Amino acid sequence: MLTASPPQTDAPKDPSGDLIKADLCIIGAGPAGTALAANAAACGQSVVLVEKHRMGGTSLNYGTVPSMALAAAGETAAAFRGSGAHGIKPLEPTVEWAHVGARIRDAVAGMAPNFSAERLGGLGVRVIHAAGRFADQKTLMAGEHRVEARRYVVATGSSPLLPNIRGVKDVAVFTTDTIFENREPVDHLIIIGAGASGTQLAQAFRRLGSRVTLIDQSQMLGRFDHELADVVRIALTAEGVVIYENARVDAVAGVGSRIAVEGLFNGEPARVEGSHVLIACGRRPAIADLGLDLAKVAVTAEGIKTDGWLRSTNRRVYAIGDATGHPQSVQRAEYHARLLSASLVLGKPRKLNANGVPIALYTDPELAMVGLTEAQSRKAFGRVEVHRFPMRENGRAMSMRAQLGHVKVTTDRRGRILGAGIAAKSAAELIQVWALAISKGLTLDDMSGWIAPHPTLGEINRKAAVHRYAEMTRFAAQRAWGRVLARLQ
C-alpha cells in the first residue's frame, strides 16, 4: 500500500535538440491533452506534448479504466449471489484477488496504445518524457529542453488530497490512485470520503466480499441531487455498506491489518476498526511545481484562474480539465479540449458552457446528471416545474428486476429543460438524450415527440416529458377545454 501520488516513470528523455519552437505546447498527456495534441497536429500545427508520469494520465492508469474494471468484477460477483431472484440457484463466488488485479492491468494495457508516445509521434506530435516548468512567460523547461511555443495548455489533471487528520501520514493507507495496486483480500475497508470515487469503490469492494464502512463529514454524494443520491444510499445500505454521514474523523492509527479510525459518528464518540483504510477526500489540481508564478499565471484556491475561453491571465497560457478546479471529471476535461481545438486549431472560438457537461456515478444503480439541479434551478429561476417517472413503471426494468430509481427533470414555467437527473440502471447511458436536449435548448414538448423502442429503459425519458401533460389535466380549466376540443373534431 502506498500513500504517494503516482511515481515519475523512468522513460528516457528526448535525446535531440535543446531549443524547441512550436505552435502549441501541452503539459499533461491525459485523455484531454492527447486528444488536443492529435487534433492540432492533424491540422498542421507543430505540437509538443510534455508528460512526467505515465501516458494516459490519471484516467487510464489510476482512475476511470481500472475503476470500471474493478466495478465489473464486483458486478459479476453480485450476479452470482442475486441469481435466485431470476429462478437460478444462487451461490457465493470465490474471489481470486490476484486474477482481479490481473484483469485490471489487462484493461489498462488494452487502452494504453491509444495514448502511447509511438502513436502520437506517428501523428506528428513530439512527446517529451519530463517534468515541465515555466521559466518565464514565454518559455517552458522540460528535462534537457527549452520550449518556446506560441500557445501553452496546462492539462496536468489532479492528485489525491490527503486530509489533515492526526496520524494519517503515519499509517499505510490507500488513496484513490493506489487502491488498484492491491493484490490481496481486504477484510474490512474503511473509506474516508463518500464522494463519487469513495462510493463507487465502497460498492465494488463490498461485492467482492469485503466489509465496508463509508464515512463522510457531510452528506454522501453531496455534489449530486440529494433526492437521487438517496437511491444510491438505499442500494448500498441494502448490500451491507455501513454509512456514517455528518461525521468527524479525528485520528487514524494502527499497524499492519489492524487500523482504527476514531471520531464522532452518529453524534457520539466512536472507534471503527478495519484491516485497510482508503482516503477518498477529493483531489486537488496538480499544478504546484509548474512555475506558474514565473509565467504570470494567476491561481485561486480552486486551480488555475481562467476566463470563459479557458485562457489564463497570461494570454499565451490556457488551462483545461482538473487543472482549472472543480467539478473534476474526464468528460469536462475532454469538453474543454474540444473547445480549445475549435479556438486554437480551427480559429473558431467557442465560449464555455458548463451546464451542458454531464456527470455520472458508476454504482448500481447508476446516478447521472446534466444541467442544473432542482435547488440550483429554484435559486436561479424562482418558480420551476419538476417532473418524475419511476423505473417501477417501466416494463424492461421490471423484467430485469431493476425497478429501483427514477428520472427527474426540472424545467422553467414554459417547459424549457433546465436540468435532468437519473438514478437507475444504465443511468449514464440514459442521461445522454437530456444532455443533447439541454445543449440544443429543447423543451419538454420536444422531448415528448419521439417514439422509443418498446420495451426499453429509455422509455422513461419520454414518459417523464409526457408527465407534464398529465399534471396539467389536474386543473379543471384544462379538462374543460379538452372537452370542448373533442366536440369540435
Outline the secondary-structure elements.
Blueprint lengths: L18 E9 L3 H12 L4 E5 L5 H5 L2 H18 L15 H15 L5 H6 L2 E5 L2 E3 L4 E4 L2 E10 L3 E3 L13 E2 L12 E5 L3 H12 L3 E5 L10 H13 L3 E3 L3 E8 L2 E8 L2 E7 L1 E4 L3 E3 L31 E3 L10 H16 L13 E3 L4 E6 L2 H8 L3 E6 L4 H5 L6 E6 L5 E8 L2 H4 L1 H8 L4 H4 L11 H14 L3 H13 L1
Parallel strand pairs: 1-2, 1-6, 2-3, 6-17, 8-15, 9-10, 9-15, 10-11
Antiparallel strand pairs: 4-5, 5-6, 7-16, 12-13, 13-14, 18-19, 19-22, 20-21, 21-22
Helix pairs in contact: 1-8, 3-4, 3-6
Structural class: alpha/beta
Percentage of residues in DSSP E strands: 15-25%
Total helical elements? 15
Low-confidence runs: 1-17
Largest sheet: 7 strands, mixed
Mean pLDDT across residues: 92
Residues in helices, as a percent range: 25-40%
Radius of gyration: 25 Å
- Name the assembly state: single chain
First CA to last CA: what distance? 74 Å
Principal-axis shape equals globular
The tally of beta strands, per DSSP, is 22
Task: Write a brief caption for the model.
The chain has 489 residues and is an alpha/beta fold. It is built from 15 helices and 22 strands.
